Each structure stands twice: as C-alpha cells, then as structure tokens.
Amino acid sequence: MSSVIPVLLSGGSGTRLWPVSRKSFPKQFAPLTGDQSLFQASALRLSGPRYAPPLVLTNADFRFIVTEQLADAGITPAGILIEPAGRNTAPAILAAALHVARENPDALLLVAPSDHVVPDADAFGRAVEQGIAPALAGRIVTFGIEPTRPETGYGYLECEGAGGISPTPLRRFVEKPDAATAETMLKAGNFLWNAGIFLFTARSMIEAFRAHAPEFLAPVEAALDDATRDLGFLRLAPQPWQTLPDLSIDYAVMEKAANLSVVRFAEHWSDLGGWDAIWREAQSDRPAWRGVVADARSTAIDCDDVLLRSDDEDMEVVGIGLKNMMVVATRDAVLVADMDRAQDVRQAVTALKSRGARQAESFRRDHRPWGWFETLVMGERFQVKRIVVHPGAALSLQSHVHRAEHWIVVSGTARVTVDDKVSLVTENQSIYVPLGAVHRMENPGKVPMVLIEVQTGVYLGEDDIIRYDDVYARS
Amino acid sequence: MSSVIPVLLSGGSGTRLWPVSRKSFPKQFAPLTGDQSLFQASALRLSGPRYAPPLVLTNADFRFIVTEQLADAGITPAGILIEPAGRNTAPAILAAALHVARENPDALLLVAPSDHVVPDADAFGRAVEQGIAPALAGRIVTFGIEPTRPETGYGYLECEGAGGISPTPLRRFVEKPDAATAETMLKAGNFLWNAGIFLFTARSMIEAFRAHAPEFLAPVEAALDDATRDLGFLRLAPQPWQTLPDLSIDYAVMEKAANLSVVRFAEHWSDLGGWDAIWREAQSDRPAWRGVVADARSTAIDCDDVLLRSDDEDMEVVGIGLKNMMVVATRDAVLVADMDRAQDVRQAVTALKSRGARQAESFRRDHRPWGWFETLVMGERFQVKRIVVHPGAALSLQSHVHRAEHWIVVSGTARVTVDDKVSLVTENQSIYVPLGAVHRMENPGKVPMVLIEVQTGVYLGEDDIIRYDDVYARS
C-alpha cells in the first residue's frame, strides 16, 4: 500500500476564537480542548504506519512554534514550507504538490487543516485508506462528514447516487445553506459537510490547477525555484508569490474539477469554528446539566446553555442568570457574547485593532525561537519580565542604549556573557547587565532555564536592541 | 451655629459590588466612580466650616487603609474607633455617642455611611443645617431622599403631613416594598427613601438606647472603658462587645422612637448598592447611547442596557449582542450577570468562598500599614512581588526559614538591614538577603519606594516569617 504524505495547513489566524486564539499564537497552536494543541493532535492523528512524515505549511511568524510543537509531539516533519504571505489555501496546496512532485509526482498527499477535532484517528485512517485507490486512479478525493444537525455554518458536498455509498463521485459543492435548505439536505442523506480535507497525487493536483487555475502555476513554481533554506525551513520566495490572489482551493479548483470523489466519514468531527462549537464539543464529551459548560475556575449561578471559561490559572469567572451565552476570560481580555453571535467574534478583533489594543492580535506572552517571555509588570521607569529559555538555546548577543538589566535565575542554569566576561549563573543567583554592555543569555543545560529580568531605564521598548549575533538568523 | 461631628461608618464589606469590592478592601475604599474613594469623598463632603473633624468607626483590618486615605484627602480625624467585631450599626452608633458624650453630651453627631454618592455637598450641608434646630431640641433627625423612581430596593420614611414640608415629624419606617406599593408611595409624595443618615445630640441617642435597647448600654460602655490606645487608634475592648447582637440602628432604636424628624433631600443621591446602581449612576452623569456604559477598555458591539467595566489597566472587555447585562472584569475575577440579578452578586461571593477561592474575599494586592505588595508571578520554587513602601515607613525586622530574597529597587531609595549591615539601596541597585538572615526594609525618603522582590525557596508562604520588631505593633 502506498504511504500518504500529510500536508498540514497551519497558517491561519483563528480570529473567531479570540481572545484565546490571536494572530500571534492562533487556535491551532493553543491547547483548546486538552493538553495538546490542535496542531499537535492533527500531526499525531496523521502519523503512524499509514503515513509518511508530514509536510507543514505555515508562515514566518509561526515557524518556531511549529518546530517546537512538533518536537514536543515527537514528530520529525519531511519539511516545513514558509509562505511569504497568507494567500489562502489554493497557492499553499499547489506549492505542496509541486514541492513533492519534484521527487515523486505519483506521491499521495493528504491535505488537512490543523485545527480540527477528530477523536477517532483510526476510523479516520480507514477513511483515508478508502480514498487511496481512487486517488491513485487520478481522482481528487474529498472527505465528507456525515451531518448530525442542520448546520448553516458549513458548506456541503452533494454525492452522486443514494446516501451511504463511499467512495462515490461528487455531484457538486453547496455553499453555506439557509436553515430550511440545511434541514432538507440533512433529510436527503446524500449531502455531507465539506471538511476541507483532500487526498490526491501531486500530479493530479498540478493537472487540476493547469486545467482550472493555470495562473497560479508559474508564480508558485518560481516561489519554489527561488526558495531559500534557513535553519531547516524552506522559505518560499516572496516574489511573485505576493501578487497571487487570496483564493481557497474550493474556489480555484475543486468547484470546477470533474474528477472528484467523496469518502464519507461518519465519526465525530468538529472544525471548532467558534466558541459555540467548543461549547457543543464539550457537551458531546459529557452532557452538561442545563447546558452549562464551566471549567474548574468558573461558577454558574442560575445559568442555562452557557460556556464559562477561564484561561488563566488565577482568574475566576462567575455568571449569574445567563442564558445562551459565552464568557471567555484570559489574563488580559474578556469576551462575553450571545451564543448565537459566535461568528461575530471576529468583529471584536476588528474593533480592538482599530483602536490599537494589543489584545486584538497578540498576547502578553511572546514566543521566540529560544523560548518565550512575558511582561509581569510595566512601571514608570521599570519593567519585570519572566524569561524561559529552552535547553541548548541562546538569545542574540545584544546591547541596549536605554536600559540596565538585573537577571535573577530562578530555575536551571544560565551561561551569561557580559562584555568579555562569561559566567554560569544558577538558581538563586543574580547578575547585573549595565546599560550599554554587550550581553547574551544562553541555556547550556538539560532543563528549561527560568529567569526574572528587572529592567530599569527611561525607555523600555523591545526595539531598543542592537543585535551583534543571532543563531536564529533574525536581523 | 453649633458645629457637627461627622461619624463615618466604614466597617462594611460591600459584597454586592464584587469583584471590585471584597472583604479585604471593600467598596467604600475603592475609587469606584472617580479618583477618590467613596470613603474619601464622604469625608470630604462632611468637612469644611459646617463640621468638626470626623470620628471614624471601622474594624482592625481597615485601620491603616482609613489613616492612609484620610491623610491622602488632607483630613485629620478627631478619632478612629476600632470595632472588635462587626455588629451592624446599632453598637457602632452607640459607641460614637457615648465616646463623644464623655466630653460633651450636647455635641451634635451626624452619622453617615461612607459608601454613598451625594454629588452636591453644599446642598447636603444645607439639609444638615435644617436638622440642627430639631436635633438640639432633642429630636433624632433622619434624612429622607426624594424618590425618583418606584425603587423596591430601599426602605422608605413616611412623613407626617403633606409632601414638601421639611423638617417634618416621621410617621413610620416602611420596609422595602413590592413594586405596586413602591408605585403608590412614589405618587403619594410624603414617602422618602431611608438613606441611613442621622443627626442627633449624643445625649438624645443615649436616651433613645436607654428607652428602646437598654441591653446595649453596659457592654458598649465597657468596650469604651477598657479600650486601648494603639498608634492613634482607639481599640474598643472585645469583651463583652462580641456578645452583642448584630442589629441595625433602625431595628434597635429608630423604628421604636417617637422623637424622629425627617429632613427632605431632593438632590441626587445613590447608595451604590449594586452594579445596577453604578450603571444607573453613570447614565445620570451622561445619558448613554442604547444604555451602554463602557469604560475606555471596554467595547460594546450590538449591546443594549449594559455595564461593561474593566478595572485592570491591561484588561480588554468585549460584549457582543448583550442585553440588560453587567460585565465587570478585574485582574483575577470576572462577573457576568443579568442586570436584574444585581442583588444576587453576593451569591457569587458565597459560592467562591465555599470552594476556597481567594478571590471571594481578597485581592492580589495586599495592603499593609507600611504600604502594599502584590504577587506578580508565583512559580514552582520562586515568587516575584512588587512592594511599595510609603515615605518614612518600615517593614518589620524579620527572617525566613525557607526562602532567600533578591531585592531590586526600581523607584526611590531603601534603607536595608541585613544582619548587622545597614545600606542605602537606590534605583537600579540590588541587594541579596540570604536564607535565615535577619533583615528589614525601610523607606527613609520623601517619595514612595518601589522594589521588586524575587524569592526563591521550596516554601514561599506569607507565614514563613519570624518578626523581631514591628513599628505597627503586629504580632
């Protein structure tokens, strides 16, 4: 049996799950429904004997999150392609197909979003196996989820013939329906939810683009030809990629192609497309009393059909007399919305962005290739940060014009360079970095190094930095 | 004209305004509606030529908050009486009357809660003036607020004669009415809201207790006889005070006394008795579009009749599609409730208390006589605190068994004792306090001293402290 190369699309920004999902660290990387991130769960679901190592498509901002999360999950990818700019799924999928075709045009690719929930990985794997024969025969295979409710938030796939046959040719794509149409389709039995998962050979997909969206071929070929390798990433060239239209694979190719088949998938699936889906998902695990889904830090008093969620370990959430509502609290932002307005959460992001609130797109915690940091307090002329450095990682060699820094190691051991002096600083030791000194912090150890940094100075912006040397090739 | 001694009652715990008001720092001390706290605003309203310096009644937990806030407001009190235990208003008011009577039984006392809003202080002062003659003639004068709506949340005062005459004898107290009764009383014109504000001579109040609640006299006398002076506070003796019943002045005396008069007050007044009152209050300042009251960190999208409030400078609040709701977010707790459930917010406090959540009663910021501190982050074996010390203040001389401390001064100057060494540590300097060292931190300067403390150790509880010496007489 041919093995299948999973292609994980993970460049999205998930604004409908704000404030837990933000552009700087979107939902696919967050542990939304368990200990693993959705991205990790997706990568693990598509690993094992059925699959070759995955190809990941992401953007420059997420590249270190991707490598860190794959390493955590114990997965070695076949490659990580960096899109120079988000242009929706059409160029990304074509880039994957062209990239793979250079080695083996008959290789099978399974394109999947990295933010869906599919609890039964083995059942999904058997569905993939059903698709292999038609895919090898030149069909593009799409996976249709058997609907369990008259959902108006998804597109549908209309199958040829009576319901139940799988794989079966696809008759047509159906746009998100109104409630009545959704009801009719649910009863008809030959309409499935379009999950945006596709199985095909590299050759078939390239041919499909050639037939239906040929304008993508040359620019994406060029992006691959001029790609640069950088710390294990394959960075697609920005030109002419950036001139490509923002287009989904459905619009560009699938809705026009005649060689589509559908594999029916009847097990549980969710796209976690909004907080209402998260709420529904939690109830599918365990029916909730009066429809209340509340975590250990949330208290519902006389509430019905509510999601109460606290994503900060020191944040209590209390709802009193609420009906059909969602409350999501993080360290720095709270969303309260009518459950029926779940799709409008992106309006919150737009509104916050328009008035310059950081919370629209980024978190207090900032992920970097070497680890992460967060501001604990920002004062008049001081700032306190917690800095966590991965084992073996190093920050850039740098200096500041406006600030001095006190470093206190509270876990692990740091190797610290200050001008021409190098010292080991371990738990409960501190070191002072005077204003202007050229300095670097490294973790030479085997466990994460945690350090408290107290900055003092009149200007404490992240841009007061002169970098002399950086192992992560940042300018 | 006789001057009036304001008696500020400020021992309450304000649970209906949780999470901004908590037992450890209740609403009267919080800047709920402006820069000043309600307590400060109340003290200032009752200062000036009409009034003598105030007498404050509070409890031991709030004593340093009271002195700090009075000092900030530039007010020197006549005395601060510490109640050994909260026993409602009856014993507190009797203690004030007996205390004042020892110097001058004919002195006029104006008892007022310290958590009400009365924007027009001069109008209120004129109302007080109207009450002076009857009070000197032996009447107990109560102040009735002219009702502006059929409120069911307040008690009422029924005045003798037709509406509009002031002062006028009181016919009777009316318990919180149902909606229909409230409507009838609003139309009748001779019913006023009971604001819990009273003017009387010390002698009259003592006589009223002797006539209607004589069982209070001996225990309260004893509490005063055995009171101790401590750093300027008069601490009432705990026995037999603690055996007193928990009773309001209304129940103990007012509802039985026949010598009551009412002064009508027609200007704006609010008891800020719940978040619905805060919401209403904000609209009385400036009518809100679609009833939305939102602060600078809150965003309302398609909301009607909502209060959206963020009490943390780094917290964004977004409401989508909400109607008749209140959302109050702080650094560590979020309340979301139907506006009609404002009185049930105390249930939130009860629920959190029953499962041991700190947020039920206390804040991250902990006020102490020397200033305050807050935990910025609590880690596996470390904790980072921000500590602010008032000019001239000093922490106790202490040592710890389980932790070492790194101190970095980020504002002002500290005088630091570590064992037998005393040093001045100023901005951008640090000092290390080894485990077991006897140490003290003082602010010898003229500006607040701000210090970042990084603790390391296996146990970091506040109770790992041996105190050798404390200027605030804490054990």
List the helices and strands and how they pair.
Two copies of one chain form a homodimer.
Chain A: E1 4-9, H1 38-45, E2 55-59, H2 63-73, E3 79-83, H3 89-101, E4 108-113, H4 121-136, E5 140-145, E6 156-159, E7 168-174, H5 179-188, E8 191-201, H6 202-212, H7 217-225, E9 228-230, E10 233-235, H8 249-254, E11 260-265, H9 275-285, E12 292-294, E13 298-301, E14 304-310, E15 316-320, E16 323-329, E17 333-338, H10 345-354, E18 365-368, E19 371-378, E20 382-389, E21 397-399, E22 403-411, E23 413-418, E24 421-426, E25 430-433, E26 439-442, E27 449-457, E28 466-469
Parallel strand pairs in A: 1-2, 1-4, 2-3, 3-10, 5-11, 12-14, 13-15, 14-16
Antiparallel strand pairs in A: 4-8, 5-8, 6-7, 6-8, 7-11, 9-10, 16-17, 18-19, 19-20, 20-27, 21-28, 22-25, 22-27, 23-24, 23-26
What structural class should be given to the helix and strand makeup of chain A?
alpha/beta
Number of domains of chain A: 3
State the end-to-end distance of chain A.
Answer: 46 Å
The biggest chain-chain interface is: A-B, 59 and 58 residues
Rg over CA atoms of chain A: 24 Å
For the record, the CATH architecture of the largest domain in chain A stands as Alpha-Beta Complex
Q: What's the level 1 CATH class of the largest domain in chain A?
A: Alpha Beta
Strand content of chain A: 25-35%
What best-fitting shape of chain A do the alpha-carbon axes yield?
globular
